Amino acid sequence: MKFEVPQLHGAYMLREMAVSAIRTSKLSKDYGVGRGLFDLDLEVASQEVFGYLGPNGAGKTTTIRLLMGMIKPSAGAAYVFGLDCRRDYVEVKRKVGYLPGDMPQFGSLRGKEVVAYLGGMRGGADPKAVRSIAERFDLDLNRRFREYSSGNKRKLGILLAFMHRPDLLILDEPTNGLDPLNQQEFYDLLRETRDGGATVFLSSHVLSEVEHVCDRVGIVRAGKLVRVARLDELRAAGETSLEQIFLSYYSDTDQHQKALPG
Amino acid sequence: MTAVRLSLRLGRWGLLGFSILAFAASLIQAVGFYQIAGHTAASRAAFAQSMSQVASQLTFILPPPTGLNTVGGYVEWRSFGGLAILFAVWALVSGSGAARGDEERGVVEAILATGLTPSRWLASRVIGYALTSPVGALAAGLGLVAGVAGGGESISLAPVLEICVALAALGLSCYSLTVLIAQLTGARVATAAAGVVLLALFLVNRLSQTFTWLASWRWISPFHYYDLNQPLAPGGAFDGRATLTLLGIAMVGAALAGMVFETRDIGAPLVRWPSRDRPAGYEPSRSPLWRIPVLRGLYERRAGLATWAAGLAAVGVLFVYLTRAVIQPLLSIPSLSHFFGGVVGGQLYTTFLGYIWLTFAQLLFAAFAISQVARWSAEDSDGRLEMVLSTPRSRAAIVVERAIALALGAALVASVSGVAVAVAAHYQAMDVSSERLAEGTLLLVPFVLVFAAAGAVLAAWNPRAAVGLLGGLAFASYLVNELGPLFKWPTWIQDLSAFKLYGTPLSTGIDRWGLVIMIAIILVGFGASILLMERRDVGA
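The joint structure predicted for all components is written out below.
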């Protein structure tokens, strides 16, 4: 039996890691003077839409960059489908579609060239998926990137994140700059993607958006995760609106505590 | 007043960097004069004679010298002659940044929203530069004074101040011309367009020393009016009218730029071509090149590479004509023809072309390497690297792909310019060794990669500072190559210079030891860059 316990424990861990799309353990990024992300323990199940809520500077973007292996954790670890985000970052990115908070600049490249360029780095973009999403958002890929409005740049970012039909979407404030019609289109796309078997992790400070599309929410404040809950549980328990829950964490707090960036 | 203060603040790093360079350039040349020319009249006369031979080979880049047996004459030619180029570059970078760079970043829009008119904002930028340019020029003067004091002599301050005034006026006129041209073009091509115009004005003045048909056009060049000032050389004088002309060019250029800025839309050039009405598209580009590593990088910057190749080919052809114009009269003198035959083994054209063309080409290729490193840094700061790293590509693969794409791009640019030089030499009936020319041209590829490797390390370590540091490194490398033989520095110090490692392939063949060192630097540099990239945070 003594021999079997660690075996069972290992098997349990493996099963958990296989089930979890995202798992973090004491994940920290310390930028000094109290800024950063601290001891984040979080688990996001497969096929879940998880909303990551927090005000500006709470640590949302830092969490996302840690998951994407862009930055090195000061402590702890993060896993995507059981893969270490730092060590196995190439494998992780095969499974992930990523939308950064700020769109990068592609200058004079045309939209179709940006898609082909980043699609080529993935071994080729799926033309059907590209066409479908571009038509859906009415995004003209023949135009140059620098001619795009901020909303069109965001649409291109969404297209780049979704075009290879990833298992996990990590989206940093995805509807920033989108008009209400395109926001609605995006929510529909998100639901379809989830129904197709993908997992979504999206950060936002738009509470209505999170209420609209997410299964579960996590609230982060000053670099610390203060609450994780299912939206339907909150409603069933007769809790007040998400806005009131959210505000309750900030009304008495150190809003001025800084966490960088995002 | 607030706008002028803001202009000064925006230009403070340029002022610091170019002032240090100007000070160092004058100080080194003044100290070098005493080291090499000595302190006796005889040794200085011998020095002046040898330097005048060097000057005859550098007429395409430096003005004709006067009084090379004096520290004033030597520094005026060697340092202040070269500082004209440095100040033009400063004016170009600063002026295009002020006119269009800040506009692209949204700074101008925010300022105009406060109620300031476009012309007043532009005037504040010109005034800001008019206040900083003399500081940089005075730094050059201070370097001269310090160097002369170090040599145990003294120099009258009046002529030093006069040359500084002329240099500052030249910088200001170049700045105003840059600001004016930047108003006429699109933001993306403003620096290139202004750079081409300033280069053309520079070459009109310099080449008119060799090609007499250009002399009648000299008056259009601000560099001509700067050259008319020779207050440091014995018998020379400060030309007040020429300096006033420079200031006049500056005022007219700034006034016209202000008028154009009032007329055009923010973010748009004065004249906008109607855009073609093309149907909307929803498909990705079908070019297979986007899928092939390395080729996609070359394909993406195809326009830039074509511009570099065409520009260098044109400059190469120009140098062939220059070589012919300089050498042919010498060969028509039988005694000199016999002398040159003995000195350079009959390969006079090859040797001279190698000296002037490949020396200049090294500077241009170093600039090419710096421009590519600037691109890597920009990819980092504008979020493109983060987006690329969101694809399943390792950081090491990205560094390697960048290096190979740069090597192939440099090979392409070098090959086109080499072929252009060979064809032009053939049509000019010049006896140039095609084998040596091919070797010298291809050796420019590892030369570029040496700078790129250093740039890759800097871009991985601190992308924001990479371009400035690499520019400083290139300047130091050039100085080591120039000053090392004069001051008899140890070989290992001279070998730190990429310019020294490149050698003189057209006249003496490839320096194999230099090539080995260059390859070692390239491998170590890109290896270190990979290690740094693997460890650093991106996007933070």
